[in-house]
Design brief:
Blueprint (H helix, E strand, L loop, with lengths): L11 H15 L4 E4 L1 H7 L7 H4 L16 E4 L2 H6 L4 H13 L12 E3 L4 H10 L7 E8 L2 E10 L2 E5 L6 H16 L4 E3 L2 H12 L6 E4 H8 L7 H8 L8 H6 L3 H6 L6 H4 L13 H31 L2 H23 L1 E2 L2 H32 L15 H11 L8 E2 L2 E2 L8 H10 L6 H18 L9 E2 L1 E4 L9 E4 L18
Parallel strand pairs: 1-2, 3-6, 4-7, 7-8
Antiparallel strand pairs: 4-5, 5-6, 9-12, 10-11, 13-14
Length: about 500
Amino acid sequence: AKSKNVLQRPGLADRLDSILSDLSTHNPNVILLVGQLALDVAFPGQGRSITEWRGSILKPTSGPFAGYKIIPCLTPMSVFIKWDLWPLFRHDLERFAFEIDSPDVNVPDRRFDIMLSADQCIERLNEISNIPTPVALDIEGGCNGMTCVSFSPHPLYAFIVPFACYSLQDKIKTLRAIAAFCWSSTPKVLQNQLYDNFVLSFTYHLPIRNVVHDTMLSGWEIYPELPKGLGTQVSIWTREPFYKVDRKIALRMSKERLAKVSSSEDDDDEEASDLGYIPTALTSSERDILHRYCCKDSACTLEIALAHDAYLKRQPTGPLQHFRFNMELLPALLYLQLRGIKYDKQAANILTTEFGGDILRIQTQIDNYVESVWVRHGSRGPKPVSVNLNSPKQLAELLYVRLGYPKQHPKKGREVDTTRVTTGIDALLELRKRHNGTDDDILEWILQFRKATKLSQATLLRTDKDGRIRCSFNLVGTETGRLGCRKSATGSGANLTTTTKSLRR
């Protein structure tokens, strides 16, 4: 188990004393922290993740490495295990080599206006409307409410429109100014523009015109094997230290919500999964953190777009042409997301009833079979109760303990975790393949139960107020560039591309 205080691990203190002695002797300009343990030592008790903080140029003010410039990076072993991480590892080593000549920490000195009045915001928006140079924007929130919007006409400057701080009249005035900007000829830059454009178009009838660059798409053209969220791209294409954790700090989320938007998953940038949130009574310091966070998002997005554009123009024409082709597809996908699909709720309810009957019938068959086995073995012990087949624990106890089937263990690559058992679909299919006699029909029934349950869930799709279902598309949802599909930002729909033909009501 990982110790809460890494410095208390046996033997670590002596090794650390030796390292610190060497550091005082050599006084290096920069230290490369390789792996999670080294990062934990540098920031004891802070719980920083190496996958989040790798590549950041830092100078701790406390701890063993206080006063030294440090750069965390992944371990070579992690790259051997997952070769997709090689570009990140190579980048961090190149950054380390670039930093060896000076102990100074040179990170972007960005200026943000985070508390402008409504009139000041309108003035700024007018200044950046109908200009020839690109402007990046980023929203905080979703279809249930928008907290703020940031605009960055330069990588070192951004300003915020703080909706949560305005009166209704001020919100109306600034929304009109934002609408004028979005409809202007100014070239716009966004990260995953389908999400921001959908939220503004669907909720406020405010589409964004003339989007010339989507950094999520250009990032895929360069590194299709890497995560495409803004957090990863910032670590590669800018010198901005990791900051995505600021969003959690500012919003004071519950533990459940905190887990859902883990920054290590590049939460709000890569997937349109955030249904929107309106923070409750933020303190002034929390509000400032959120506003600065949003401004960093737009400023970094613009900096990344400029870097991507320069990089792609130096490459063969293929990637640049494909990027422009993908950009041309975005308006059509936005139309599909906004239009949605008419959903026959009455037909879906009929199917739900049919599948419910199948589930009840299969459950009864399984319960009767389990009882017959109990009787066959002399009715020893208490009479078996109905098994919850949706419970992996109860199903594992039924299959591997009461019925005696060989235990199936979860696999990860070539490794098998023999400390745990699994009742996943692969395990059930493997058991059915090996045990296909008449006394093994229960395995077939369990598979049928799984199928009927999944089909039943597919008929319970939530619709929007207009009776239609929607989904969110991702043009680079996979390494190979296959179109991804998932639940809409409104909360309706699902991955509609995998909906069985018989269920397409």
